[in-house]
Amino acid sequence: MKVIHRSILPCCRSLAIAALAGALLGGCNSTKVPRSYQTEGFPSETPFQYYSSREPEEACEIAKRALLSQGYQVDESKPRNIRGEKYFRPKPDEATRLSIILVCLPSNLGTVIYASGLETQFEMKSKGSNAGVSVPALGSLSLPWSLDKDTLVKVGEETVTDPEFYKRLFELIRMLDG
Questions:
Q1: The pLDDT of residue 3
Q2: End-to-end Cα distance, the chain
Q3: What's the confidence (pLDDT) of residue 40?
Q4: What pLDDT, on the 0 to 100 scale, is given for residue 27?
Q5: How, if at all, do strands 81-91 and 139-143 pair?
Q6: In DSSP terms, which residues pair with 49 in a beta bridge?
Q7: Is 110 helix (H, G, I), strand (E, B) or coil?
Q8: Hey, is 47 helix, strand or coil?
C-alpha cells in the first residue's frame, strides 16, 4: 500500500502546483485596466464651463467669434450650439482634427457656456493594387503594378480633458466679452 501512496503523492503535488499556478494567473487577469465609465467621477467643479452676464445668443456669438479668430471652421446651423473644427498636420503622414462644441444655456447669472473638445488622429496608409491587361492572343493577365492610393485612416479619438486647454479658450472668450 505504501507504493500506491507514493505514486499518488507526485500526482497530487502536480495538481496542487497546477491549481496554484492557475490561481496566480487568474489573479493577474483581475488587475485589468478599468473601463473609462468606471473611473468617471462627475465632479461639480469642472473646467468645461464659463459664465457670461450676456444673453445666450449674444454669448454664443462671442464664442463663435473667438473660434473664428483662431482659424476654426464654424458650423452656423444653431445659434446656441457652436461646432468648430481645425485641422493640424504634425507630420507629413499624420493629421489631427480638433473639434470644439460650445453650448450656451441660460442661467441665473446670464449664460453658461459649456465646452467639449475632441481630438481625432489620422495616419496616411498606402494601398497597392494590381493592374489587369487583356491581350487577344494570350488572354487576360493580372500584373502587380504598383498603383499606390494614399488615404487617411482614423487611428484614435479622445475627449480633450486638459483644464489648461479650456482656460485658454475661455480666457479668449472673456477678452472678447469685455
A1: 47
A2: 97
A3: 85
A4: 53
A5: unpaired
A6: 114
A7: strand
A8: coil
Query: Which SS3 state, helix, strand or coil, does residue 83 take?
Result: strand
Where along the chain do its domains lie? 47-127+144-178
pTM given for the model: 0.68
Q: 79-102: buried (b, 16+ CB within 10 Å) or exposed (e) per residue?
A: eeebbbbeeeeeeeeebebbbbeb
Domain 47-127+144-178: CATH architecture, name and number where available: 2-Layer Sandwich (3.30)
Closest CA relative to residue 64, chosen from 52, 51, 73: 73
In terms of C-beta density within 10 A (0-12 exposed, 13-18 middle, 19 or more buried), how is residue 139 classed?
A: exposed
- CB distance 59 to 80 below 8 Å: no
Helix (H, G, I), strand (E, B) or coil at 54: coil
* H or E element in which residue 121 lies: strand 110-127
pLDDT tens digits, residue range 105-141? 999 989 999 999 999 999 988 765 555 555 566 566 5
Residues of the chain with pLDDT under 70: 1-30, 127-148
Output the furthest CA–CA distance in the chain (Å, rounded).
97
User: What CA–CA distance (Å, rounded) separates 47 from 92?
Assistant: 33
Of 170, 5, 169, 6, nearest to 98 by C-alpha is 169
Could you give the CA distance from residue 25 to residue 20 in angstroms, rounded to a whole number? 9
Strands (E), 6-62: 49-52
pLDDT confidence of residue 147: 54
